[in-house]
């Protein structure tokens, strides 16, 4: 295995000391893509937002700072990344605004129709069964909910030695559109556009919207909406703020 292949494997599934280093590099390399993708997501106050592949938690932190009254769920398959995400979002986790847990993307530990928006930044390269992942995304999205996928364009990625076919599936605009269709998103409800990221680096953002519900929710469906997660551990209770007079006394 070459050094660049080892780097690609760590980016796909960070672990150990190499994974911790990969997380630090992700924070640097993904700073602008994270900011652009979070802005394009357009989350609104009070919404529940899920990030697939939250990595070291940079986008989660951006959402926590800007999404008032909402809940951010961060899922990753790497415990090394979740440890960094918890450290980066310690206060928001303590207050219950952010919930982080380890999960397989092909079997999300979330109730159906429980999420308003889903964000996936620089992670689609690694989906071995993209149809299954996107099928789960559609399941957990509420009717009218939005998925936003960010990837670096294939033409830019091919210049980077770590983007080996063994670890990375590359996308141009057509391939990204096909990806969304493989998950059941209708072409008329999807859009893909270019986004300049850095000189010589082009990003792609794909936005897909889940169609409205065909039938009214039954009682079990309404109950599912009240339960945003089945298996993600509940956050620790937030500290209770005492009145100023009591604190000073």
Can you give keywords for this protein?
249 residues, alpha/beta, Rossmann fold, seven-stranded mixed sheet, 11 helices, 7 strands, globular, SAM-dependent_MTases_sf
Strand segment count = 7
Corresponding CATH architecture: 3-Layer(aba) Sandwich
Report the order of strands and helices: HHHEHEHHEEHEHHEEHH
Q: Any idea of the CATH class?
A: Alpha Beta
The average pLDDT value, as a whole number, equals: 81
Euclidean distance between termini CA atoms: 65 Å
Structural class: alpha/beta
Assess the beta-strand content as a share of residues: 15-25%
- Please estimate the helix content: 25-40%
Taken from the alpha-carbon principal axes, the silhouette is globular
Query: What is the number of independent domains?
Result: 1
Alpha carbon gyration radius: 19 Å
Q: At the third CATH level, what is the topology name?
A: Rossmann fold
Number of helices: 11
Region (Disordered): 224-249
Keywords: Methyltransferase, Transferase
GO molecular function, one term: S-adenosylmethionine-dependent methyltransferase activity
Domain Methyltransferase type: 50-148
